[in-house]
Amino acid sequence: MEPNNMYEQEIDLKDLMFAVLYKWKPIIAVAILIGALLGGYKLITTYKAQNDAEVVEKANADYQKEVELFEKNQETGEREIENLTESIEKQQEYLEDSLLMNMSPYDVWEAKTVLFIKTDYVIMPGMDYQNVNYISTVLQAYRTSLTNLEFLKSVSKKVGMDERYLEELITITVDGNLLTLQARADKKTTVEKIMKELRNGIDDAQPRILDSIGEHTISEISESVGSLVDLALSDTQKSQNDRLVSLNNSLDQKKTELDEMEEPKPASSPKVSALKSGIKYGVLGGVLGAFMVVFFVCVFFLMSDKLYSAKDLRSRYRLKVLGTLPVIGRKKANPIDAWLRRLEGRVDPKSADTEYSLIAANVKNYADHIRSLLIVGTAADEAISAVAEKLGALIPELQIVRGGNMLQETEALAKLAASEGVILVEQCGRSTNSGVAAELEKTTDLQKPIVGCIVFE
Does 47 share its domain with 76? Predict the structure, then answer.
């Protein structure tokens, strides 16, 4: 079998992972050591810094400021919630009780009366002195009489409506000598009743205005009552409903902000602060220490020429792996290492006899016409001797010869020249890839077939 010189090494992430996991003891040890050193250093320095009188005084002063700010913000938030709640109640009441908010914009009853008010004012041509024109004062006096609270209360009792909601149904406008009275409602009878009270208000106010301001006359120009569509009312109603939604949203937001406010905590004692800081940096140091060990294990794994597993021989040199055996004299693994070996698929030491039987069967299958096999390799001497002895007992029809390490022993090379076939015995963690390549080169030069290899893991 010729060595595969064109082989390009690939990193097996599974092997790399298990190589790291097998080093759990140094990983934990270094993590604890560095964590203890870094955490202890930080604990001592923090305690000294926090125990300083000026630092303690400043921390207490800062805490007091935070408490005052928290209480102020909390008080402001509670006051805002109270104001919003009150505004929402008033807005809900307004939307429920206001006649204007509950009227249909497509069926609004409107009563309108236009009055002409005339005074004795005349312009005297050519005269420097003119009489005072008090028509605007008269109009404003009538307007004030119809919109004052006392008048609205008297009208509200007669029409059965709160003065707040009555006021938004009445519109009094003045223009030149014209006084326009306008009232709206959801029913014809209601709007007529309101307009009647407005006319009565004009009649009641006329004597007072005549005495206090001056002579004038009132003439009715037009009067109308009818139903109309008012799209502006629809917009007004929508804006008032939107205002209620906006108030509720603001209330929810303020409640959330108030609930999320966290009361400041008093400054920790120097011991507590130092302990927290020490634990924090201890954990950080532990992670750093573990990372350092993992890093060096990975570098060593990538740089090492040592054989890691039997599949390396199969993939790199295309050698038949006749079987794998536990390393002779290996100490009993602790539960964690034993579990890792089972997880990785390593051979169980208890199954050595079974493995030898399987190896013997594979040798018979692959040996063909070969009658003399040389057992050589770079594994430990006791491992090579054990293989030769076991196979000699299991395959008596073949001549099994122990050869040793042919890279170091001249006797092994002499036996190689006299043998008909070769079985390589390698050991993970001891044998090297370069050593296996040298063995393959020597067997190829002598044209000796390699039946396969046996690997101690």
Answer: yes
Do 166 and 269 lie in a common domain? no
Residue 161 one-letter amino acid: M
pTM over 0.70: no
Mean pLDDT of 254-281: 80
H helices within 368-451, ranges in order?
A: 381-394, 410-418, 433-445
pLDDT in tens, 285-319: 889 989 999 999 888 888 888 888 888 888 888 89
CB atoms within 10 A of CB 442: 16
Residues 340 and 216 in one domain: no
Q: How many domains, the chain? A: 3
- Per the CB < 8 A criterion, the answer to whether 444 and 1 are in contact is yes
CA distances from 180 to 118, 135, 174, 224, 323 (A): 14, 15, 6, 12, 114
Alpha-carbon span 220 to 116, nearest angstrom: 6
Angle at 116 (CA atoms; ends 112, 118), nearest 5 degrees: 160
Q: Which helix (H) or strand (E) holds 286?
A: helix 270-303
For residues 256 and 322, state if they share a domain. Answer: no
Separation between Cα atoms, residue 206 and residue 273, nearest integer Å: 85
